[in-house]
């Protein structure tokens, strides 16, 4: 009976480890992210481009102890709490430029289309024939379903 208790104890400890290790790792990751965000908020400078926690992009125009003034459009300045700053975009852009990365290329390809493919395109230029292939495929599928249903009814 003592050996069974020892095995149960080992299994209990293993289950605790399996549950506690991911919890510990997740907590560490969250603390690291929080520390990095706090450093970003503490090291803001006038002229930095930032993104707020709500996803708004703006430029820092003035700094106070707990608040920051952000220019969200030319001539439109709003005051935010520093904790609302999620990340600084200025530093990321400079690092990307050093690496030879051009952010302007990001918008060039969307869903497999380049600006050259899209330039001059208008949905008004589409005709019913542009969709005819899709409609025929749908009709063929529906027709084949009807045939099966009609055949099933005739057999009954």
Automatic annotation (TrEMBL):
This is Preprotein translocase subunit YajC. Residues 138-156 have a biased composition (Basic and acidic residues). It is found in: Cell membrane. Its main location: membrane. It comes from Tomitella cavernea. Residues 91-156 are annotated as: Disordered. Residues 93-119, 126-137 have a biased composition (Acidic residues). NCBIfam families: yajC. Belongs to the YajC family. The chain crosses the membrane at residues 6-25. The lineage of its organism: Bacteria, Bacillati, Actinomycetota, Actinomycetes, Mycobacteriales. Keywords: Cell membrane, Membrane, Protein transport, Translocation, Transmembrane, Transmembrane helix, Transport. It is a single-pass membrane protein.
